[in-house]
């Protein structure tokens, strides 16, 4: 009996084949290498010309109901069988059901800011995802990453992380298209996916750590910045379109009837003074940048006060959506003052460390990256950086390191 023809991928890039994950064969670089920021995407096996056209997936609308080509969570080996031998590359709808089940029973809770949002995240958003493929992929990605944090088996964790990466990669381009084409029909899905994507961006660096991911925390926060701009667009041009009740506790940016603790208030005063000093030391053409930083610092101070009243993700994520594109560009260019402001937000993010799995250790990782870049030696800067180090528990680490160095010199 002749062997049945099948469409198993044999022409993926070398990186994907080495890691045994499904390659989209669209490179170089392929989506997986782009997402992992790998610069050596190569194809040792060349796709034959006679099947090249059939290997390319047909394009379709971002909200299409066509089935996804993303590989679901591969089956895990049973006892006595190696994990690699048990990986199935064929689609298994049951595994997508596993991801949706996990999202609707476990993962959704990490996105709620109150019990009032339970129905929204557990029922309404998954139902909405059936009509918006990028949201469905976002849900699958976040659920898969969540599952990765629940297992102690390295092989199983790797499979869930790779699946989460693949679904995340699949969701990004159609989501960006939706962001550029907001309408009453898609604004709820865009709003929900903005929050889901922010959680994914904060979780990923902690699950994909390695030498090839240097700078991943700052870069992923930049991605979250960019994608959360959709929330700002909705609030400006389509607030009346939104039907989902998400992050609603009155007018977020209205005045808060509380004061910051003395230490935090002093830190923001020092940050504002530093911003003023930089304005005076530069040409007038840079005053507009100073003004933007002043507003961004003001917004961040407000988010700290909001978090003090209600310690949930809303004040943390709200600031990401409030900053402007110029600030994001400055972060990408590693502008020192912008990074310093971002480090202060990292302190706020760290407050979610034990409250949301996707934020676990993210604040510390972000601050660590920034402190590795900022080495000014300036007393005004050191006053601001000292507060950040102290809040993150890094101040004592420096003291211990200096003490150890002195003991070595004296011995």
From TrEMBL:
Keyword annotations of the record: DNA-binding, Nucleus, Transcription, Transcription regulation
One Gene Ontology term of the molecular function aspect: DNA-binding transcription activator activity, RNA polymerase II-specific
Keyword Transcription regulation recorded: yes
Alphabetical list of CDD domains matching this protein: GAL4 (cd00067)
Keyword Transcription set for record: yes
InterPro entries: Fun_TF, Sterol_Uptake_Regulator, Zn2-C6_fun-type_DNA-bd_sf, Zn2Cys6_DnaBD
Stretches of the chain forming a coiled coil according to its record: none
Zn(2)-C6 fungal-type domain ranges (all copies): 12-43
PANTHER family: STEROL UPTAKE CONTROL PROTEIN 2, TRANSCRIPTION FACTOR, PUTATIVE (AFU_ORTHOLOGUE AFUA_6G14150)-RELATED
This protein's name: Zn(2)-C6 fungal-type domain-containing protein
